[in-house]
Amino acid sequence: MIGYLVYLALLILVPLWAQSKVKNTYKKYSQVMNSNMVTGAQVARKILDDNGLYHVSIEETKGMLSDHYDPRKKVVRLSRDNYHGYSAAAAAIAAHEVGHAIQDAESYAFLRFRHALVPIAGLGDKMSFIFIIAGILLNAMNLVLIGVIFMSFAVLFQLVTLPVEFDASNRAMGQLVSSGIIRNNEERQTKKVLNAAALTYVAAALVAVAELIRFASMFLLANDD
C-alpha cells in the first residue's frame, strides 16, 4: 500500500511540482531585463549567425512556453513573449532552442538517436496501455508483455531526451557568455531559467520509468504465480 502511494505521488506530484517551478521561475525572470536590451529573436539570430547557421530561420509561434526547434524545416520557433521580449528568460530560452539547431548542424549523436526513436516511441506511447489493459482484463500476460515492450520504447525516448536537453542548455550558456549577450551578474539568472526548464524533462523521465517498472513487475509477478 505504501509503495502504491509513493508511486501515485511520483506520478502526480512530481510533474506538478516541476511545472510550477518552471512557471514561477519563468515569471520571475521574464520581468528582469537583460543588460543588452536584445529580444529573444535577436539573441537567436546572433547565435545562429555566429555559428554559420544563416539558413535557419526564426518564427513567432502561438502559446506560452511553446518554444522549440523544428529540425525538418530548420526553424527556431519562439513564443510571443520570448520572440519580442527583452527579458533574461527570453534570452535564455531563445539560446536553448538555438542550442538544438547547433546540435542538428553538428549531427549530435543523442539528437540523431532521439529522432530515430520518434516513430516507434510515438507508437509505443499510444499502444502500450491498450495492450496492458487488454491483457489485464483478459488475463493474458502475453498481451501485457507486448504492452511493456511498447512502453519501453517510449521510456527510452524520455531518457535519451535528457542528455539532448542538458547539452542544449550547456551550449546556450556558452554561446550567451562568449557572445557577450549576458554578463557576469546575469549568468546565475540564466542558469536558473535553464535548470527550471530541465526539471520538466527529468520529471517526465521519472514518471515514465516508474510506470515501466510497475507494469514490468506486474508481468513478472504474474508469471511467478
UniProtKB/TrEMBL annotation:
The chain crosses the membrane at residues 129-157, 198-222. The keyword Membrane applies. The keyword Hydrolase applies. InterPro entries: Zn_peptidase_2 (IPR007395). Keywords: Hydrolase, Membrane, Protease, Transmembrane, Transmembrane helix. GO terms for molecular function: peptidase activity. One of its GO terms (biological process) is proteolysis. PANTHER family: MEMBRANE PROTEASE YUGP-RELATED. This is Zn-dependent protease.
